[in-house]
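Lab notebook, bench 4. Continuing the backlog of folding jobs that were queued last week. Each job is logged with the same field layout so the records can be merged later without manual cleanup. Today's entry covers Di/tricarboxylate transporter, a 593-residue chain. Filled in by technician R.K.

JOB TYPE: sequence-to-structure
TARGET: Di/tricarboxylate transporter
LENGTH: 593
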Amino acid sequence: MTTPQILSFGLILGTVAVFAWGRFRYDLVALGALVVGLALGIVPAKKAFDGLSDDITVIIASALIVSAAVARSGAVEVALRPLLGRLPNEKTQAPVLAALTALLSMVTKNVGALAILMPPALQLARRTGSAPSRLLMPMSFAALLGGMVTLVGTSPNIIVSGIRQDILGKPFGMYDYAPVGLILTFAGLAFLVFGYRLLPAGRKGAETMDAALAASTYVTEAEVPDPWPAGPMTIAELRRLAGDDIEVTALERGTERRDAPHANSKVEPGDRLVLSGPQEVLNQLIAAARLSLHSDTRPAHRPSRSEDILAVEAVVQAGSSLAGQSARRLAIHSEHGVTLMAVARSGQRLTRRLHDTPIHVGDVLMLQGAESVLPGVLTNLGLLPLAQREVRLGDARWRFLPIIILAAAMILVAMKIVPVAIAFFGAAVLMIASRSLTMREAYQALDAPVLILVAALIPVSETVQSTGGTALIAQGLAHLFHGLPPMAALAATMVVAMAATPFLNNAATVLIIAPVGADLAQRLHLNPDPFLMAVAVGAACDFLTPIGHQCNTLIMAPGGYRFGDYPRLGAPLSVLVVVLGVPLITFFWPLAG
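JOB STATUS: finished
OUTPUT FIELD FOLLOWS
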């Protein structure tokens, strides 16, 4: 063993040990490993930052932006709302939500698919009394399964494709993973149909700050446009678009005003509605019913095209100039350049028009204005901003444009007109250019720790190959597996990737193990492709811990899960993946050749 090999192995093992220790952040550990590699001289200085421009990093970043734009469009929620309303209990909810998550994960990044469907799932659980702990983990595992089907569904597939490009000169295509991934997904979903019963029932998830704030009941005004594409409809039909989670506290038609209108009252073009409900539900209703915010509450204009318009929540403090006054009397918009979007008041039902409602100390206001203006306005008006979070109301973005852009990118890749990295990078830029996503939202969508981890570990993991370390490990494994059936070596490769993922993170696992698997295949005179596929499947299927994949981490608090809950459902599913996955890979990707 040469000195560079010893240093490379030492660096990798040290990095793995620090990952497993869990004392430091993954991205910080990866950056530290890169610095150590440079100091030892095994990472060439000219290649230190190659990971930032690597196709792997570009595809992951672009897929995150595309997924965020699809999520913020609300198109998926609107499409699924009639279906979700027909699921009365856990027996139907768990398998249907899992299947929907798997399906969506096939076209967007799996964590994005889960993030899109989690709010409707939690809302459905609250409405029907189902346990979120019985719904969220099947959805997370289904997202991991569905992500295996396409190149952009999960990070391991993207990284394995890049490694194949380096080793064999050609990457895996968008749908090369589909034959194995689809069958494993269907098998996994079949298990989850009854397997969800292994999970504890009645666990109460931890409330996040966003959830606590979102529970506030706001009052806002909306106007029915003329013509009205979504109408005509009754008050009851209008409320059903928001899952009956909003109230129409008043209806104005010309000079006529009706407080608490009857459910059978007709809503006509030109009507003005006073709506009450949680912010997210109000936003969904305004978008789904094609309503527009009333002229008094219409979103403010940008002072310049480069400046974002933000919406913030703030509490009226004692001594505020707003206390006892109405927004119309104080001319908030003309005097201060901000718009009052909604008001929340505890313990009182508001029925007056928004800008005629006297504001009280303790009210929560939703204000919209330019990013540079809002801080000064809040101070001058005596308002205390709440915890920063995303607030949307009356968003005028074209709902289905992100779906169209995503479909176009998928078609271009499927027809091999453009490479995957170019197609999804272009799709991400179009999402921003079309205002489906603002630049601020795009930056927020980027999972910086994962991107930094991947970009830093690419040159670090390449040291094992450049020093001849992968050949050395593969030679040892070839002797170990000598005389055993080739499928045993393939199964061992998948199990090693699956076992390492909780400790290394799936991206790090693939970067380290995939080159070893490919080299092992060549030494056994076998086709490297099935071994690369085995690494991709093993690294994508972390069903045993909440830390190996972002999906499992995302559901832990809302589902009220403990560490030991994951193996209850995940262990049998992992066995199923290995037992079915190995023969499936050898069927579609023969070992010989």
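OBSERVATION: The chain has a mean pLDDT of 82.
SIGNED: R.K.
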